[in-house]
């Protein structure tokens, strides 16, 4: 089960009852946070969670509303005697940016590793969980992320028998392990059917609608996308500030053929997203306004 929680839904600045946009994804004991603006640790606390179990923090870009919460969160992790290393992933310049922020959180009892994304996209694999960063179009270098869990095909006992593979190896092969029997090597692909549909979530914010989003979000179970402006007459503002309107996000959801859309990263001037949702649903029916703390457990089909 991939457990997703949209911790905040604000853009630019936190408001009372609306924290800055950030996403928490948890799978099989691994916790991944995407973006960490001012107040993200309070949003976590409101869910009853601590930042300590976070293994990886991914940053879309280095505007303050997406990263200024980092030093405070590092301090909290340090005060809680965290010793496990923390991995940070972000655009080029991550190490320099984090080191600058670290001047106010200099002594920590754990290691921080920074990985700067190379090129237009990069994939990171954590056991069964995959994170892919893909470049979007903002006024600074910015990446969207897909989080996915692949699913193996069904075990095919007939194929295993045909190849004379001993019964005692079946369980290991079924769980993705390679087995050696004397001079013979058996790999899972020798006994497994075609891979089944996994789970995929796409998160993208602070961008114009571009083809890379459609390509990468394609077939997502959940697509979390910025909707900075509800009003269609703010399209010129969206274009000049490199953001999106609700309708543009809906069009992306439709083109990418996703299952469900949540909007986020609202302009501070947009107090209520609901009045615009009827028009959004004319383009993409399964659309919802993101709300702080909105969560969903995503399971494999059948
Ligand atoms: Zn932003
Ligand atoms: Zn930005």
Question: If you had to describe this structure to a student in words, what would you say it looks like?
Answer:
The chain has 302 residues and is of the alpha/beta class. It has helices spanning 40-46, 64-67, 70-79, 94-101, 157-162, 170-174, 211-217, 235-240, 246-255, 277-283; strands at residues 2-8, 22-27, 30-34, 56-58, 86-90, 112-116, 121-126, 129-135, 143-151, 179-181, 184-186, 196-204, 222-226, 261-264, 287-289, 294-298. It folds into two domains: 2-152 and 195-298, Metallo-beta-lactamase, Chain A; 153-194, no CATH class. The strands form three sheets. It has a seven-stranded mixed beta sheet. It has a seven-stranded mixed beta sheet with strand order 7-8-9-12-13-14-15. Strand 12, helix 7 (211-217) and strand 13 (222-226) form a beta-alpha-beta unit. Helix 9 (246-255) packs parallel to helix 10. The chain is globular. Bound molecules: zinc ion (2 copies). One zinc ion binds at residues 61, 63, 138, 206.
In short:
The protein has helices at residues 40-46, 64-67, 70-79, 94-101, 157-162, 170-174, 211-217, 235-240, 246-255, 277-283; strands at residues 2-8, 22-27, 30-34, 56-58, 86-90, 112-116, 121-126, 129-135, 143-151, 179-181, 184-186, 196-204, 222-226, 261-264, 287-289, 294-298.
